[in-house]
Design a protein that fits this description.
CATH topology of the largest domain: SH3 type barrels
CATH class of the largest domain: Mainly Beta
Radius of gyration: 24 Å
Structural class: alpha+beta
Shape: elongated
Number of helices: 3
Strand content: 35-45%
Number of strands: 13
CATH superfamily of the largest domain: Pelota, domain A
Largest sheet: 7 strands, antiparallel
Helix content: 10-25%
Distance between the termini: 35 Å
């Protein structure tokens, strides 16, 4: 997450990673305000042409709403903020939903300044945005799955599978060894060499990885 602008009452933030959406979900509480570029139908563009009604156009505009509810599921790629429009070119007082994703800029504001714990959460998020803390590799004889551990949970980032499990091959052990070697080489490209890695799995296959 990148902090673009700040004041005592407002923070303008850029979402750079899915992890940042979790942070926004903690900060986007009911009663606070959220502003971002969004889309809304402009009723003033609705016209009559040849006796037929032309529907109002959807236009991009900066909309600020007072948050009523926040919807977010861990490791999803979107955050939804529902509330009532307080600032916009049209439809003040109407309900609106901001759908926030990676790459979006959002301005959160509240009266009276931000609590110390929220300031601390924001500092941590801007320092560690999107950085994995560790990796887990689960190794089986016909499948290798890579998991990333972040500040807010775990998600799988890659998977390698030996089609048919190698059972139909004339030399299944040789095929399996070649598969594990190839999976290890590809995993190294994904993981790099800066993170702690835990290799686990049933049986002794993990020792061959």
């Amino acid at each position: 997450m990148r902090l673009l602008k700040r004041s005592d009452e407002a923070k303008r933030l850029r979402v750079e990673h899915e992890d940042d959406l979790w942070t926004l979900a903690q900060l986007g509480r009911a009663g606070r305000r959220a502003g971002m570029l969004s889309w809304r139908r402009d009723a003033t563009t609705g016209t009559q042409e040849g006796g037929r009604a032309k529907s109002a156009e959807r236009k991009p505009m900066w909309i600020v709403l007072e948050i009523e509810t926040c919807e977010f599921h861990p490791f999803s790629d979107q955050l939804r903020l529902h509330g009532v429009i307080t600032e916009a070119p049209v439809d003040k007082g109407s309900h609106h939903t901001h759908t926030v994703g990676v790459g979006d800029d959002v301005e959160l504001s509240m009266d009276g300044g931000w609590p110390r714990e929220d300031e601390q959460l924001l500092r941590e998020a801007t320092r560690a945005s999107g950085r994995a803390r560790a990796m887990i590799i689960v190794v089986e004889s016909d499948e290798v799955v890579l998991f990333e551990i972040t500040n807010h949970g775990m998600r799988d980032i890659s998977q390698f599978t030996l089609r048919g499990g190698g059972k139909r091959e004339a030399k299944p052990t040789k095929v399996r060894d070649a598969f594990l070697k190839q999976a290890a080489e590809k995993s190294a490209l994904v993981l790099g060499d800066e993170l702690p890695i835990v290799i686990c799995g049933p049986g002794m296959t993990r020792d061959q990885f």
